[in-house]
Amino acid sequence: MKILIIVPTLNEKRNIESFYKKIKKERTKYNILFIDDNSKDGSQELIKKISKKDKKISYIFRAKKMGIGSAHKAGLRWCYKKRYHIVVTIDVDGTHNPKYIKLLIHNLKNNDIVITNRFTKKGSLRGWPVHRIFLTYFRYFLVKSVLSMPYDSSGAFRCINCKKIPLSDLILAKDDGYSFFWESVFLLQRKKYKIFEIGIPMPYRQVGSSHMKLKDIYYAFFYLFFVFIKKIFGKYNY
Questions:
Q1: In the prediction, which pLDDT does 215 show?
Q2: What are the C-alpha distances in Å from 187 to residues 45, 98, 192?
Q3: In whole angstroms, what is the distance from residue 99 CA to residue 96 CA?
Q4: 61 DSSP β-pair partners
């Protein structure tokens, strides 16, 4: 069974090596695809160095920052082109522990996609700044209420059965930024795919800073309202 792990990066040099070591500890035959959006901190040089030692490492280096959603779409296209059976998407910043990858894959047996939930386990956001906890909860309940979704759909740590979901449905979401995550789950739900959630702890990043800016937050709320209006008037048909 061919399994690919998609890892978007942007100025994450200080996190890449520790992430790679955690993956190696799992002693599994995962292939890894790094997608870097023109990092300036030496991330690309480190990825190249690792790939020379480990043939299971591949990478896509893009000329500029094109958005986290766009990076996931690029990774998914590469995955399907190479005919992988399972794909896992994960953040490299330390919030997603690779030890849970096996659990995600195990729960994929009777489902089409397995996603992670930050709110079902008590203390899963331990160590997060108060303002980030507030924003995360607010977004969760807003998306859940507006789009009638029972999931924590904004997370990037997920596992997909490539045999059951065609690429066209995975990249159907129009947004190329952070809203890609909830929009893609929203569309998969509308298409009646089997979505399963696993509650896991997600500690706050210890190294580096979040790439989400204030403008990203404003745009996300605007885009959610846009999708909601289209849904009400039956214009959200893709």
A1: 81
A2: 37, 26, 9
A3: 9
A4: 36
Amino acid at 47: I
Protein fold of 3-232: Spore Coat Polysaccharide Biosynthesis Protein SpsA; Chain A (3.90.550)
Question: Which whole number is the average pLDDT over 49-71?
Answer: 96
Judged by average pLDDT, the poorest of 49-53, 105-109, 229-233 is 229-233
Angle between helix 68-81 and helix 180-190 axes, rounded to 10 deg: 50
Please, which pLDDT band fits residue 24 given cuts at 50, 70 and 90? confident
How does strand 86-89 pair with strand 3-9? parallel
Structure tokens at 28: 């599994």
d(CA 207, CA 191): 38
CA dist., res. 88 & res. 100, Å (int): 11
| Burial of 27 (C-beta count, 10 Å sphere; 0-12/13-18/19+) | exposed
Statement: residue 187 has pLDDT above 80: yes
String of DSSP letters for the chain: --EEEEEEESS-HHHHHHHHHHHHHT----EEEEEEE--SSSHHHHHHHHHHH-TTEEEEEESS---HHHHHHHHHHHHHHTT-SEEEE--SSSSS-GGGHHHHHHTTTT-SEEEEESSSSTTTTTT--HHHHHHHHHHHHHHHHHHT--S-TT-S-EEEETTTS-HHHHT-----STTHHHHHHHHHHHTT--EEEEE---PPPSSS-----HHHHHHHHHHHHHHHHHHHTT----
